Amino acid sequence: MYRLISQHTDFIVIDKFPDISVHRDQAECGLVTRIEADLGRKLWLVHRLDKMTSGLLLLATSKAACEALARQFREHRIEKYYLALCDRKPNKKQGRVIGDMARSRRSGWRLLKSRENPAITEFYSRSAGPGLRLVLCRPATGQTHQIRVALKSLGAPIIGDPLYHESVQPAPDRGYLHAWQLCFTMGDEAFRFIAPPLNGALWSADSVRDAIEQFNPPRQMRWRGAGPDRAPAV
């Protein structure tokens, strides 16, 4: 279900495997329950990843630590970088996707033109081999399905996404969205965690790995930051 990345007095960081629910779903126990059992301690979930999404997940070891970390998420002070694989080019190579999100059919979401409480996603994309496009995403907000809907709106839904990509044969072995890097501070100490994508046949292609290295380190790239109200939508 997961790989333990780091243990700290105030938090733990794991690499969640794809197709694992954070909370109890149809399985006998959810991911958090399993980690608590494995480590023998109570944990607080600071943020969430979709079931299909793999990668870095942060859990606090106390209620106070959870509140401190959750506040950083709310104030957009935690840097999150995601990798996605698409089978077509987005309609722009880089930029931002900004807009409110509303419920759609089949438990999905759709992007609106309004900006009352917009989801904001910055992205860069590059070729990752024939028929593949690697997209580096930095979400400035944390709304449900935000990156998945953003890439769908750019004409490049994520490979294997059961909601936003049409069915293809043969079916992909997973939805190709991965929480790659996480940067934040706790007290006076700065932390940066990296979890390379390991689960999924496409991640192992040399062309994909080379493309990922071209994006590393992502925080040195030119990011425009939040600025939700004045920023033009892509």
Can you describe this structure?
This protein is 16% helix and 31% strand. By secondary structure, it is an alpha+beta fold. It starts with a strand and ends in a 20-residue tail after the last helix. The relative contact order is 0.18.
Order of helices and strands: EEHEEHEEEEEEHEEH
Alpha-beta content class: alpha+beta
Mean pLDDT: 92
- Rg is 17 Å
Q: Could you say which overall geometry the principal axes of the C-alpha atoms support?
A: globular
Could you give the count of β-strands? 12
How much of the sequence lies in strands comes to 25-35%
- The count of helical stretches stands at 4
Largest sheet: 10 strands, mixed
The level of helicity is: 10-25%
Distance between the termini: 36 Å
* Unreliable residue runs: 226-234
List keywords for this structure.
about 230 residues, two-stranded antiparallel ribbon, 12 strands, globular, disordered C terminus
In brief, what are we looking at here?
The chain has 234 residues and is of the alpha+beta class. It has helices at residues 31-39, 63-74, 146-153, 206-214, and strands at 2-7, 11-16, 44-45, 54-60, 79-86, 94-99, 101-103, 109-111, 119-127, 133-139, 177-186, 189-194.
Topology:
Elements: E1 2-7, E2 11-16, H1 31-39, E3 44-45, E4 54-60, H2 63-74, E5 79-86, E6 94-99, E7 101-103, E8 109-111, E9 119-127, E10 133-139, H3 146-153, E11 177-186, E12 189-194, H4 206-214
